[in-house]
UniProtKB/TrEMBL annotation:
Protein name as catalogued: N-acetyltransferase domain-containing protein
Chain spans, region Disordered: 1-43
Pfam family, one: Acetyltransf_7
CDD domains recorded: NAT_SF (cd04301)
Gene3D superfamilies noted in UniProt: 3.40.630.30
Amino acid sequence: MLLRPARDTEEDAETVHALATASFGDSHTLKGEPPQGPPSAERAARFREKFRHLAGTDPAGSWIAEDGPGNAVGAAQSHIREGTWGLALLVVLPGAQGKGVGGALLQRTLEYGRGCLRGLICCSRHPAAARSYRRAGFELHPTIRMRGVVDRARLPAPDGPVVAGTPRDRDLLDSVDRRLRGGAHGPDHAFLMRRCRLVVADDLAGSGYCYFREDGTVETLAATSRRLATRVLTAALLGLDEGVTAEIQDVTAAQQWAVDVGLDAGLALRAEGFVCVRGMRPPSPYIPSGAFL
């Protein structure tokens, strides 16, 4: 097996997308979930753009594993943002699992983040992944996923002003990041602003923001208080088009304010996976992004 750096190219982006599609399909089967259909063209394009963003902004954190004949069998992407390391992706073809591919990729990304004080991973319920991250020294915090069409009649209006975010809010966003996770998202905000809608709250009591996608997925949220976190999450859910299915992932037990908003909105709750942390507590009030953490 050979590990090589992943390049910021369409070819490598498509290779890793194919690996991820096969790996995630196998993961759903292991968890007893029905198989998912092929990803939409929009979802595939979003994955490739995200891959190239991380490979371009943090090339030393992206790797592809190849077998003897040179076929890609696994991939991993990690990034460092102001001393906070995050694992954005770790996928292995079903036929190559259990043969040390995932462990070698994880080790290479951990070596890249060796100088970081803090680490974050969003982990699925896949048993092998959870075992690997725990053995690597991460604390595992169980999470909730909330999903459903927002019941606007039940969800109270935000308790204060919320505005649409713009690139001018970058300093505010980075400041909130540093306070909660020890490092700003930095260049990731430019990517998120292209792909998501952004709502921001900023008053004398503090600041908060929430990125959410048109398809209803809350990408990430950070705030300096539970009150402001509740405000921006509520605004994001109410900002979805009528009938769109909302989804909020990776909600830890420390985010009961988010659970309350989800229940008020009529969303269904279920146990999902883990937020894994090393050298830090789970940020709060905070909802991580699976890729940008």
